[in-house]
Structure formats: structure tokens, C-alpha cells
Design a protein that fits this description.
The complex is a heterotrimer of chains A (about 525), B (about 400) and C (about 160).
Chain A lengths: L1 H13 L2 H19 L5 H8 L8 H26 L8 H12 L3 H35 L3 H13 L1 H4 L4 H15 L2 E2 L6 E2 L13 H19 L2 H7 L12 H23 L4 H16 L12 H24 L5 H12 L6 H6 L1 H30 L6 H20 L3 H18 L5 H23 L6 H4 L1 H31 L5 H5 L4
Antiparallel strand pairs in A: 1-2
Chain B lengths: L3 H23 L9 H16 L5 H14 L4 H12 L13 E5 L6 H16 L6 E5 L6 H9 L6 E6 L5 H4 L9 E10 L2 E5 L7 H10 L3 E4 L5 H13 L4 E4 L3 H10 L4 E4 L1 H9 L3 E5 L26 E8 L4 H15 L2 H9 L3 E6 H22 L5
Parallel strand pairs in B: 1-2, 1-3, 6-7, 6-8
Antiparallel strand pairs in B: 3-10, 4-10, 4-11, 5-8, 5-9
Helix pairs in contact in B: 1-2, 5-12, 5-13
Chain C lengths: L2 H26 L15 H27 L6 H8 L3 H24 L1 H17 L4 H21 L6
Helix pairs in contact in C: 1-2, 1-3, 4-5, 5-6
Classes of the chains: A mainly alpha (about 525), B alpha/beta (about 400), C mainly alpha (about 160).
Amino acid sequence: MEAFTGLMGGFAVALQPANLLAAFIGCLIGTIIGVLPGIGPVSAVALLLPLTFGQPAVTSIIMLAGIYYGAMYGGALTSILINAPGESASVVTTLDGYQMAKQGRGGVALGISAIASFVAGTIGVLLLMLLAPAMADVALSFGPAENFALMILGLTTVAALGSGNTVKALISAVLGLMLATVGIDAVSGRTRFTFGFVELLGGIDFVVVAIGIFALGDILANVERSREQVNVRIDYGGFRNLWPSWQDIRQTFFPMLRGTFIGFFAGVLPGAGATISSFLSYIVEKRVSKTPERFGKGAPEGVAGPEAANNAATAGAMAPMLVLGIPGSATTAVIYGALLMFGLRPGPTLFIQNADFVWGLFASMYVGNVMLLILNLPLVGVFAQVVRLPYPILTFVIVLFSVLGAFGLNNSLFEVYLLFIFGIVGYVLSKASIPAAPLALGLVLGPLMERAFRQSLIASRGSYLVFVQRPISLGILVLALCFMALPTLLGLYTKRREQRQGPAGTAEMLGERKG
Amino acid sequence: MISWQHSWKRLVLASILALIMPIIAACGSAPETSTAPAQSTAPAAAASPAQNTEASPAASVAAEPAASASGQGTTAAASASGAGTTVAASCPEGFPNKPITFVTWSNPGGGGDVLGRAMITAIENQNLLSQPVVIENRAGGSGAVGMAHVVQQPANGYTVLIVTKNLTLTPLTQNLDTDYQDFKPIQRTQLEPFFVAVRTDSPWNSLKDLVAAAKTENVTFGGAFAGSTDNMMFSLLADKAGFELTYVPFESGGEAATALVGGTVDAISASPQEVAALVDAGKLKFLATPSAQRVPDFPDLPTFKDEGFDITLEQWRGFVYHKDVPDEIVECMDTVLRQASQDPSFQKYMEESGLANGYLPGDEFYALLEKETNENRAFLEEAGLLNQ
Amino acid sequence: MEPNANKKRDVWTAVVLLALAGFYLFSTFQFSPGGSGNLPTARTIPFLLTGALVLLSIALFWQNRFQQIKRPAALSEGDDDEALLIEDPSRLRLGLFLAILVIYALTMPYIGFLIATIALGVLLLAVVFRSVSLVNFIAVLALTGFSYWLFARVLSIPLP
């Protein structure tokens, strides 16, 4: 019950008017900034850090949490409305979210994503309070071998992403992995594939590739279409389609729950927790669904699960940061830096010496979630109408935001040039009907996977057995194998059954796999 | 990063804009919400100074100067008078007349980034410059991206580069057109010690134990990327002690520490700040430090020299200019940074991050860069990492 | 889209991918591998990826050959020509769009963000979409101004 009283104390702090206001302003600004695709939660927090100086630590952190959540939501907003994922964790949201927006159900998608974030945030904070110390220990058991296994698990989701053609999905993933090898190889210190560009030494930024391939590629494909075809796209449903109905919420409730748990536990793990969890959540939903064929064509579950997962992953990532001072993700690294600036040292002592602060932080994360919901649900309808803008203006808006986003990454035009190149690549890919999501996943996981692979082998002195000798690594690899083999086996099974009994009753089989 | 008051002004403006945005988007719908945030930001601005009294001691240090700044007019007006008394003597007429940029190759929250931000806060607290200072992160390529960027900027004194030891390493390992000779050092500012850490339950209680074990059994070492200072320290140790080094490079100190606790590696090199929480939690212990002197926070921790290995290495951070920046401006900036370093907020940051004052004036700093580059070249050549 | 046209396109895709794999492999030999003994080097993963891409391209190629055998000549020749050949005005539009983007990117450092972006907006509306109206023009101005303000003032990111 110590946790309970602590939390009550935390809420007492978080609910002070000034702090509530800080949460509100944080969410608001975060959303605005997050709408610019290049500025994801990490850069939003980093850029706006100075705004919070000169406030008490708790107020600042509450505001940062607000900015963070706001920016996350802003990212979902652009993913859904203009197909421009601002960060790797919201790539999956584009798959069904953008389709929904095209069908005039953008408001529904936005509403669902806000609710999913809220549900995930609520449960995530609870889990964090109860499990933080235990989870931090789990994070410690993840060395390079385990990370490698985890990346493999993440990559197995690729097969599920390609709607139909697995070969093309795999090609896309390999292209992503290839792009990921550009830059300095951290293990050997060699420069690879930079072709003399100093800007490429640090690798190709994910955001540039994602905005280029998704948003610009889409625009190019649209520009090529005749005007009549383009106009069809702006067709939207009536007013009732602006908010999610009860039916939508009921339909997506369990995906949200599953997404939350996947997200929280994957988020605890260092590296690409949020991204992997969103992809995992997506394929779990696709596997669980009785109608997997709707995925990729605007299924609300495909928005709810991943959005819940990437939000819960944030809560999960807080555990090792607060307990052990190990920031597992870019965002927690920024928050970690902020804590240090306020003279608070994360670690076991933080919970004892600054218990007020820790509980205040948990409470404020929660308040931030509530605030975001309050702020955004009424605005969902408004945002959703972005799609109603005349197409020429919409195109201009997307180009403008993409350029600004790319420029803002490094304050240089090099990224803008890259952006245009990847726009053309995106167009070519869509002409060749190669899905883009696996490429994004490959790009994110590539460096992590290669590093983990080689680190493990250096430590084991070249013995490949290291991946199966460590129990957790072995477990994850087996899981990955199941993920890969399952569709094939199920396919064989259902085919045989269909031959015997006709096409009915294939869905229950898929229903067995619950996340 | 201008002043407390400016920040709030920006907030108010941003909030108003927040509402204009959707209005543009929706072509004029939802006007009913447009006034709420604009009204409510004002009480927040009024309320938060009052909050300072409740703040923890750590926060109040940061809050106090901000509160005092709020009583003044705009930053520029306020600091013009302040600058007149403190810096004008060393600064050329009319400098600075536009914002100054601190470029760092750290990501936000990284060592160089935090140094830059702490320095900016201190400069503002002391009203040392008549113009604001902004920070710009140009991460990537172990500093290569940041170096290349600053060399391309005009040498007018408005772009300062925050450098680390990478300035003497990256130009050697990468195919760059840039090295330390392209910069004019302003000053070296701080020293960061790093320590050799092992698991608490490991049988080794001193560096000698560790080295003895490394000679007879498989001991795996870890630290930052290949060719980093961490790697160099263990390579030198292996050379001096005569064992074969197995070195696993990691992306960050946190990652290396995780691998150490998880048993993938047996010993790592890390800055105390990065692993402090794990030491507090009783998971790690320190064996020794390659610093020249014992670290004040850890008086019982021997140096490498104490243990009989003649190796001295320290991470440092400092500020440099483009090599063509006029000497008067370099001198002016040196004075500004030195005075800012005396600010209580900066002192507090140094102390809490376990950093030592490593001040070296420009010419001595340059000599150090030259010396270290030569030393590093020898090490990198041996490790096969030198770029020909 | 017509299956036959898709098939043709897939074959071309496979060829392009094979060329890409070749280029990637060539570039892999441009840097030194580093590392020692039996450990993976900086080249190991690129080699694996090249291999994977080659295999997948062949798979894509084979997939289409295979399908052709399964469904021989189900379509008339005219169909796939039509699908491949994009109607002229759209292709022109695409070309113009790309040209404008390139000009935009190249001129921005010289004429500044504000002017370049407004010009981009006007050109896009006028040349690509042929829908210039006062409302659209004002929208372009407002959006450009807003984003400039947001970046340069609020976030202190210096735009060219």
C-alpha cells in the first residue's frame, strides 16, 4: 500500500493548477510540433527542454511528459492523415490508419488512436508502478545475444506486412537492411557506403526515408493519376464518421489491451522496443483476427493495437531508466538528461530520496494522458477534415511539412535532397507494388541487429552457439520460428481442411493464437 | 533559450497558434475554443515563481536566476548593461550582434549537449552576452558530421563547436578533410574521469587481479565503439601487461553496463555518471581509473599508476572556433566561458555529474590536441584502425 | 491492374534489383573489412544481404515464369500495353512536379526559404494542378509564413 499512498501524494502534486496547466500546455505544444513529421517526440522534447527551465522540477517534468505524449499523438496524426510517419514506432499506424483516412474514416482512426493511447497510458503507468524494479532486472538480462534474437523476432513480422506477396515484402526488408549499413560501422569503425558524403557518416536518418517513401511517394503516385481519380480519394463519409462509434470501440478494445501488454514488456527492453512492439502488435492482431484480409485496407484494430503498444512502450522504457539509470530509448535518454540537469540522479536511491518526485512523475504521466484525451477528442473531427482540403493545397502542405521536417533534423539541406530522392524511390516501389513498411522496419532494426550479432560473436570468440546457449535468446528464437512457420502450417492445415470440409470454419484456427 | 520571460511569451504565442492551426485546416470551424489557452497561460506565468518555494533544492538553483530575470526587460536590453561592465573590455566592438550557436556532436542529453546547455544557462544567468546562444546538435560519425559542419561555416565567431577527445581520434580513423588544425581552440573546460568496472560478484578486487586473470583465462572487455578512448585504454593495458585483448564495442555506456551485468562481458570502461545507478544498486564495482590523479569523489579508488601501469587517459570537453576566427573574438569568448563557469548553476552541474574543472587556455589546449593526435595515431596504427 | 502488365513489371523489378545487388556488392569491396580471425567483419552483413537480394530477385523472376505457365495467355496483348502506358498529361504532370521540386531544392540556399517556398506553392498550383485562386494563394502564403515563424522563432532553427 506504500505505492498507493505514494501515488496519492503524486496526484496531489500533479493536480495542482500550475502543474495541470503545464500538462495542458505541454500536450498542446507537443501535438503542434509533433505534426511536423521530422520532429518526433525525441526532438520535440529536446527542442522544448529550454522552455521548462526555471520551473520547479516536477512542473518541468510534467510539461516534458505532456510534450512527449503530445508529440507521439501528433505523429499518429500525420501517419493517419497524410501517410507521413514521424518516427519508427508509428510506421505501422500508416498501414491501416491512412487507408481509413482515405475512406473518410480518418476521424475514427484518430479517435481510436487517442483512446488506445489513453488505455495504454493508464495501464502502462499502473504496470510501471507495480513492476518497475522487477522489469529493470529483466532489462539487465538482455545482452547482445538476446537483442539479436529480438531483432530476428521483429523481422519475422515482415511476412505479415506484405499483403500477399511474401517475396516482395522480403525484398523490401532487405533493401531496408541495406540502407541501414550506410555510415560508420560501430563495431569495426570502418566507413561504409558513404560515397564520400560526410553527412552520410552518421547513417541515413529514418525520418527522411519514412517521409520520403510514404508521404512523398504517395503524392507522386497521386499526381500521376488523372484528376478524376484523385478526386475520388477526397470522398468522405458523413458527420457520423468523424468520431468512433461504440461499435468501433468495442471492436478495438481487446486489441488495445493486447497492444498495451506487448508494448510495455517490449518497451522495457533496450533498443527498438517501441518499434518492435508496434509491429508485433500488428501481426498479433492480424493473426488473431477472424478477418485478417481486412488488414492493410483500413481495419481499426490495425490502428488500435500498435498505437497502444507504442504508447505503453514508453512507460516500459521508463523502468530501467529510473531504476538503473539505463536509458533504453532515445526519448528516455533525453528525459534522463533532463533529470540530471535538475540534479536528480536516477537509480535505486531516486525512489527513496526523491520518492515525491517519482510518484509525481508517474501521476503526471497519467495526467498527461488524460489531458491528451480531453484535448484531442474534441479536435479529432477538426483534424480529420484536413483530408477535405482541396488536393493541390493538401499536396503543398505535405511537401512543405516534409521539407521542414527533413531540414529540421540536422538543420541542413542535405536531408532535403535525400528526402526527394527517397520520394522517387517510394514512387518506384509503389509502381513495382513492393510494400514500404518492411523497408522501414529493416532500416530501424538493421544497425541494432548487426551490432548485436557481431558483439555476441566477439564475446563468444566466434562461437555461433551463443545464440542458443542462452535461455532467453533461445526462447525468443523459438518464438520467432513459430511466427514464421505458423502461417505456412496453418495454411497447409486449412487447405487440407478446406479440401475435406469446404471453405467454412477457417477462422477459429486463427483465433487460437492470443497475444 | 533566451530568458524565462521569453519562454513564456513563446508559450503563449504557441498556444494561440495551436488553435489557429486547426482553424486553417478546417477553414474556420471550431472558433469556440480559441480563447481558452491564451487566457490561461497568464496565471501559469504568475503562479510558477510562487512555486519555487516548494521546489527541491536542486530545482531552486535553476529557478532562482530565472525568477530574477523575469523582473527585467528583454534579455538584450538587460544584458547590454551587464555586458558593459563584465565583458566589453575583452570583446571587440559590436560583437556579438546576432545569436551565437553552440554546435555539439552529442545527441540531446549526451555529454557535450549537457555541457552546452549548462553553459548557456550560466551565460544567461550572468548576463555575459548581449545576444542569445542556441544549441545545435549535429550528431553522427563520432563527431565527423559536427566537425565538417563547423569548418564550412563562416569564421565570424558566431559558430562555436563543443569538442571531445574524438577531435583527436575521428580525423584519424575516418576519411575526413578536417582535423584539429582546422580549429582554433578557445579553451578546454572539463575533465571526465572514467573507471574500470566489473560485476560485484566477480572474484577480482583490483586492477592487478583483473589483469592476472586476463593472462590465464578468457576475460572479455567492453566499452564504446572501436577506436574510442575506452578501446584505447584497454589496448594500452593489454600491451603493458601482456595479454590478448577481446574487446566488444557498444553503442553507449548504458548498453555496455547492461552487457556487463548480464554476463556478456567481464569488465567495462565507463564514466561514473553512466553507471552510477548500477553501482548504487550493488551490481557493479569500480577497480581503478586511468586519470592522472585520484578522483575526489572516490578517494579510495587507485589510479592505473598506483597499480603499476603507466597509463593516463581522461575524457575532456572544450570549446573551439573555426581556425580563421580573429584572436580578439576567441579571447572574448574564452572570458565569457570562464566567467560563466563560475556561475553556481554551472558549478552544481559539474559537481553532480562527477566532472572536474579541466580549464586549459587556448594555446595549451592546442598543444594538447597535437600531442594526443600523435599518441592516438600510434595506437590506431597498431589496432589497424588508422585511415591511410 | 492487369496481371500480365504486373508480371512484366515484376520481371523488370527483378532485373533492377539484381543490378542493385551488383552495385552494392561492388561498393562493399570499396572499404576494408577490418576484424580478424573467424569473426564477422564489416563486410559480412553486406555479403549476406547481397546474397539475400539476389535470391529474392530470382524468386521474383521465377514466380512470374511459374505463373505464366499456370495461366497461359489469358489476356489479349492490347490490355497490358494500356496499363503500362500512362496517359500523357499525367506523365507530364509528374515530370513537372519533380522538376519543380528539384528547382526548389537547388535554389533554396540562394533565395531563402520564404521566397522559395512561396514560389514552390504558386508553381505547384499553377503548373501542376492548374488551380490558381485567391483562396489557394492566401493559403500558401499563410502556411509558409506560419511554418517559418514556428521554425525560426519558436524553435530557433535557422532556415536558409
